[in-house]
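I am still getting used to backbone structure tokens and would like to learn alongside you. To get us started, please write out a protein record for me. Start from the sequence, derive the backbone structure tokens from it, and show both lines together. Once you have written the record down, we can walk along the chain together:
***
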Amino acid sequence: MVRAQCNRKTVLLALAASLLLPLTAIEVAHGQGAAWPLKGQLAGGLPQDVVVQGDYAYLAAESALTIVDVSSPQQPVWVGYCETPGCAFGVAVAGGYAYVADGHAGLRVVDVSNPTAPVEVGACGTPGSAYAVSVADGYACIADGVAGLRVIDIANPEAPLEVGFFNTPGEAFGVFAADGYAYVANGMYGLRVVDVSNPAAPVEVGSFDTPGGARGVTVADGCAYVADNNRGLRVIDVSDPSAPVEVGAWETPGNANDVTVAGGYAYVVGMSAGLSVINVGDPSAPVGTGYLDTPGYAGGVAVDGRYAYIADWTAGLWVIDTLDSAAPAYMGHSGAPGHGRCVAVAGTCAFVGDDTILRTVSLSNPAAPADVGQFGTPGVIYGVAVKGRYAYVADGAAGLLVMDISNPAAPTQVGACATPGIAYAVAVAGGYAYVAAGEAGLRVMDVSNPAAPAEVGHCDTPGDARGVAVVNGFAYIADSAAGLRVIEISKPTAPFEVGWCDTPGDARSVAVAGAYAYVADWTAGLRIVHVLDPAAPHEVGHLIPAGDACGVAIAGGYAYLAQDYAGLSVIDVAEPAAPYEVGCYDTPGAARGVAVTSGGVCLADYGWGLMVFAAAGSGTVAGQVRVRGTVVNIEGAIVEAYLGGVLRGWATTGADGIYGMAGLPDGSYVISAGQRGYVRQVKANIIVTGGQTAYVNFGLDPSGAMTGQVRERGTSINLAGATVTASLGGVVRATAPTAPNGIYLLDTNLPTGTYVVAACKTGYITQTKANISVTQGATSYVNFNLDPVCLKGQVRQAGTTTNITNATVRVYQADVLKATATTDAGGIYQIGGLAAGTYTAVASQAGFIRQTKLNVTITAGVTTYVNFNLAVSGKLRGQVKNRVTGANLIGATVFARSGGIIWATTTTAAPYGVYEINADLPPGTYAMQASKSGYLSQGKKDIVVTAGATTYVNFNLQPE
């Protein structure tokens, strides 16, 4: 619903005009704009329960009752909703009304006679938490958690009234009412049978303790079917309600939450358990006949004819064809990103971070967004950015993920890079991804090869980095309590802070446009910071709307602010010193993320879904893409529009080479065009103005090409799925995987030049070839033979989980050095090319004690894993001089001995005669000696060496 106060801003403006007084930022800080137009939504909250009647499915969806048209099972369509004040767990429908078990808000009665505009008409509070509802004989029976069973008279739906109750011994989770009895699924107290023939005085007449934890119940043909949590389905004969007895059972996968019975079959759903179809034609001998996994957490199930409808808490409403009970089949779903935390838009697709799912949503028709694809991630998605064919996902504790979204219906992960903190947000520019990683500050990832992103730099921030925007060589960090931090990234491998502006709230998100950074500052609202001089950012304006600002996007002189439980605020920031709210919309859930697209403003509303609003103003870019110097049109070329380094729109050319992008914010753009077989072309300083069309044509040069085959060294085995990359001047220009025959093809974006080409595959040693010439229109052939990894492991500091980078691992056989490798940032080393046999492996690094592993067995075709844990070494350092003249002695020999073993030997270096022993010295007491030809040797005893510390020992040698 829309906030009623949305006209307050208009009143303030009229009053100010009448008084001929200017409005200051403070005076309009709490102003309310007009109701902002909603264009469409992919919504429905988080389904907990479902009931089907006629052509409609009614879902209890946590924050609302939602209604889905299921007249076409293959394409269910969300049609309406009614917000509820509590948490909608259960629903029943009768006589044109939906009765919602709304958690601590009790029973809500919703008129659903018009499914597209349901409206609440009555309510009755309950003392517990209403989990389920069943309607019979003019009464609603409520499973009210710890408050047991509540009986409510609904003869007048607009004035429901509790008339009786029975306190069950456990927690009432489910209820089914029929023939004067209420059957209560009572958790660990099993099934309770309550006589409600006198609604004012319900009384328990029978019970049966089930072995699991009764969560849901339905009754058919004298039997109660109980969804019994971790003990699956229990069948209980209740033909004598005073003496219920179990007659059958069937264990289901996962935890059984709900059950319904139709046509001799029981349909059971549960958390992480999907749908189980069980033949109960003989209740004493139930037999599972079919099963279908669902992607989320199934909480409720309804059956109508041949179709089962599943309320899936994370995946929306799923429709299953059960005509063949042995093979239930997916028909369609009405999904909604109910846990939407963030959203990014590219062209006609929105990419929504839905807790642990990346969802792709088609915006081809903004009035009817459609869920088209999804991908489960290992972490929680807090941020997402899109560039070209890739989505870059800030996946919480899992770090950065790189997703190929060239097919929005099937996004696939192509790369990943861990971050030391929690990845909250990401921005992409110039081949690098910039990750706001919480307490770990800003992390810079090289994503020039999306299949192998790697951290190359970082900058610690004093707060908790939650948001990031990258513009013109600077990264702007929303650093929680530390405000806005400005970090120079002209050298991504060595970012450093150049300026900061403290904000009064808790900086959660940031967007940059022109000379200003716009900070979503939680309780302190929107803060506008002048950043033309990055070394001296300073606030110039602010506005505090109704809610807590947690996301912000900028387009066309407007700020779109996601303000948590207060929904969307649209703010005119054309004059940064005096921003004012022009519109607002109170969304059903919690507005967390926002992005602007040509189709409108996309809002990720946590607990509800994706909502699309009208944008304020737009421009258009159009043109044609041809082969340079010809009139040959290029079909399927991808044209991208970047504003401030951010992808604002993209389009694909038709057979005539023509493209068009509408709804672009005002500004100066960089437009690029690319297609397979051609070199990408970029045009800068394209001015886009609202209401006008900027025409930009392209002429693309044919690309050079490269092909070859990747095989295992020493065999004829072709390596499928290897990645081949071609770099020119240190920049990756093209990447391609190998086919099942090991052949790869690079024929896009390869201008004439001399390349470095690399082939890599998990389980093999990467091979690199330099000085590969590429010529326009010609094909270069480059083959690779990769050594299998036969020895692999990790080197860490002993007693810790600290990885040791650049440690050296040497492998010997019969005292002959066979191979050497160094560890990467994760402390990992890999060695290939070793013949089968027995080896000795040695790991060393300056500052640590060398470790040796004997009898390392290498088997052909098998990777042997050998890890090392190096103890910190002590250090010896000092100077050797001529005792008589005081001259520094260069080339003197110094050794340290303990227990009869010489642990280290070194020589003094020019020009000061200094020596240093910084490895292989365990803590202990040593004897030392310094010697040089022409001098008498000098020894020293009882030299104490401590781990991690430096002991200084000087020598003065007497000439002979």
User: Anything to note?
Assistant: The domain at 705-785 is CATH 2.60.40.1120 (Immunoglobulin-like). The longest strand covers residues 77-88.
